């Protein structure tokens, strides 16, 4: 099962219902169909979307796919999150580096707080950090700061990212006795500006008029 995660291809959660999978497929298939899309990679993307739908729309094939993904995760595969490129010079979780003045470092001063932290969660040795991004960063891709226990790392956010998508930083999690450190997952949350200037509003209006993307169809 090489290639991208099928849930990621369709842009749905692993717990998505069949109607959600079908709706996502119809939207993406319409967008990438070679007869309607002149982009050079449209046919390849259409094939990728179709392959993902054929598996996830069949309950038995989906169950087998999910079991295989869980086995890869246990074996140290990439089933739980997309691998990402961390910029050279970013602190590793095993380093003692990271400025004490780093505004993100305080997230991890208390590894297991008694009450839920608003910005991160701990699962075993893994850390899940919610990272806010702007709509244009999610659409176009960007270099974004991600807090880690050792300081702030710069991570390349892929173009076309969605809220809820996770970027995996291997080895940036918590250390424990008798084993390697866990991983850190940057969970993307797209945040719309609370207010817009007239120019920004016009740009969003132009995007809405030009776009054929509609998740509700």
TrEMBL record:
Origin, by domain of life? Bacteria
Enumerate the InterPro entries for this protein: DnaJ_C, DnaJ_domain, HSP40/DnaJ_pept-bd, J_dom_sf
Pfam families, sorted: DnaJ (PF00226), DnaJ_C (PF01556)
Residues forming the J domain are: 5-69
Map out region (Disordered) in residue numbers. 70-105
Q: One GO molecular function term?
A: unfolded protein binding
Matching PROSITE patterns: DNAJ_2
Which example biological process does GO assign this protein? Answer: protein refolding
Task: Fetch the Gene3D superfamilies from UniProt.
Answer: DnaJ domain, Urease metallochaperone UreE, N-terminal domain
Alphabetical GO CC annotations of the entry are:
cytoplasm
Protein name per Swiss-Prot or TrEMBL? DnaJ-like protein
